[in-house]
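task queued by scheduler; priority normal; single chain, no ligands, no partner chains; default sampling; output format set to structure tokens
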Amino acid sequence: MDIIENNMKTGSAEMHERFKTLRLCVIIPTYNNATTLAQVIQDVQLYTNDIIVVNDGSTDTTASIAAAFEGVQLIGYEENVGKGWALRTAFKYAAEKGYQHAITIDSDGQHFAKDLPLFVEALEQQPDTMIIGSRNMGQDSVPGGSSFGHKFSNFWFKLETGINCPDTQSGFRLYPLYLLKNMRFFTKKYEFEIEVIVRAAWKGISFSSVPVTVYYAPKETRISHFRPYKDFTRISLLNTVLVLITFLYIKPRNFFRALSSKKKIKEQIKLQLFNPLQSDLLKAFSVGFGVFMGIIPIWGFQLMAAIFLAILFKLNKALVIIAANISIPPMIPFIIFGSYWMGGLFMGTKLTDIEFSRSLSLDFIKKNLTQYLYGSISLAIVAGLFFGLITFMVLKLMKRKQAATA
């Protein structure tokens, strides 16, 4: 077949060379798209011959169609697994072949190969970047479900990463393979395209986008393997897990990394206290809330819960964490004693008299749990209010002194 030679003549030899220089390939995952696959491959060959077709267990003539194109690298397996597994298989194969980047394009004709140069130009200007092809989702041919899914996915991605991405569901992407090679992924179907970009963002990989054209065939001729109920449920469950990981691990990790980069903790405290973007009331509330969380009887989870809630309610995270450390080991006996003393106010005839001694042990707490719980919650509230009020007054006094000396 002379298809490659003809494409080379009509296409851009320069673009072929740029693909080679960038060690960039095009990956086409496909499952039962025999009617459109050949045209997609021919269109891509106008720009590069570094093409990998992944046959995701097709039962039609997909394999023979791809095999007819000389130079196209055909890989696959007999049983259909899912798009995510096809991409993971292709990424591994491409990395082994020495490719550093890969552009993924769908085989159903939805994407246009004429947009490939946009990715190449963006990569040359922004190396080490994940580049997403942003579709025009406002056009009339876009199905209602796709439009909703697009907005839904963008919202969760922003929540999980803090990054604004205009089209997180687009399958037309450029992946920096060498930055993903040591990552272990878990999903195998459509939800993989969410997992990979979220975890890439967590790893610190930069993101950018390029505008691309999209074509949705008429409903009566459109071939889609997306199963709305099952696949949307999978994506929703994945986002639930990713959000939990975000607030319980990623955001606290990022905060402590930023905190550890400071030379002195005192400098960090000063920086947070005099943060001009936050009000004195917010700072005071953050300190009071931190003290409250440091005393509340959820041992082992106090700091984790404090960080999660501080992020959720947009408090001053540094002040919350610093104040929550009121429960450091030297302070624990005083907190336990104060909790029992406060709890005694609620116990009436069931009051347990205590002394500040070594008898304040875990066994003692177990035997007198009710009094301790009442007291610790009460102490947490009182101490939180006290330290919050003191912080507010100190901040106001310091501002008055600064104004007087100005």
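post-processing summary
- The chain has two domains: 3-249, 263-405.
- The domain at 3-249 is CATH 3.90.550.10 (Spore Coat Polysaccharide Biosynthesis Protein SpsA; Chain A).
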